[in-house]
Amino acid sequence: PNFFALIPAAGSGSRMGDELPKQYLSLAGKPMIYHALRILCSSSRITCVFVVLAPGDEEWLRHDWSDFSGKLEVLECGGATRAESVLNGLKAARGVSSIGDDDWVLVHDAARPCLAEMQLDKLLDELADDEVGGLLAVPVADTLKRGDASRRVEYTESRENLWQAQTPQMFRYKLLVEALSMMGGVTMTDDAGAIEALGLHPKLVLSDARNLKVTYPQDLALAELILRNP
Ligand code: C5P
């Protein structure tokens, strides 16, 4: 089986409080998504990288993506939710590549620009022979409080065996399409969640907190620092 990557980038990024969707916010002199594309496209182990845009995305056309030519396929088929964008992208990928049922798909967020080659390789190495697939993740570091509606602590959650899910998340093409198709209206915030809903148990591959998700404006400065000091 071959490895393919898919980046859903059809979100509006409303939590950043910005007009520009967050994948295009400037980070170390490039649109944020450039960094995720660079790491995935430069891996010789990955056959092709699909990026899923919102239909009619004009911002994409304002930038130069020629660094990735030959390796990148742009699919303008984003949906209303992340899961829908991934599913639409997977279906469209059939028409523009040789991707097959047993091939691996690495779904990665445009909002994780600091993925390192080492983590990417570790994911591929640890899961290449896996039955189910899995994801990069880190053990939870903070103490977790369960709060009630009036913001009073009900109790402290044990953080034993609790992990923060990252991306890439890696599953076989056919299984992932099947899992996402079954979701219906249920909202899942990651792809592993859809696989879990089938009763399967994705593998947690130990990652690094530097593979952070840019969600709020203050995350941008930290991401830039990490990119400049790999
Ligand atoms: O909003 P959030 O940070 O959860 O988005 C995660 C990723 O999913 C982003 O890369 C975003 O562009 C993508 N997304 C998408 N289609 C949507 C919503 C989000 O491709 N409808």
TrEMBL record:
The record marks 15, 22 as: Transition state stabilizer. It catalyses: 2-C-methyl-D-erythritol 4-phosphate + CTP + H(+) = 4-CDP-2-C-methyl-D-erythritol + diphosphate. PROSITE patterns: ISPD. Pathway: Isoprenoid biosynthesis; isopentenyl diphosphate biosynthesis via DXP pathway; isopentenyl diphosphate from 1-deoxy-D-xylulose 5-phosphate: step 2/6. It is an enzyme of class 2 (transferase). Pfam families: IspD (PF01128). Signal peptide: none annotated. It comes from the Bacteria. Belongs to the IspD/TarI cytidylyltransferase family. IspD subfamily. NCBIfam families: ispD. Catalyzes the formation of 4-diphosphocytidyl-2-C-methyl-D-erythritol from CTP and 2-C-methyl-D-erythritol 4-phosphate (MEP). This is 2-C-methyl-D-erythritol 4-phosphate cytidylyltransferase. The lineage of its organism: Bacteria, Pseudomonadati, Pseudomonadota, Betaproteobacteria, Nitrosomonadales. The gene is ispD.
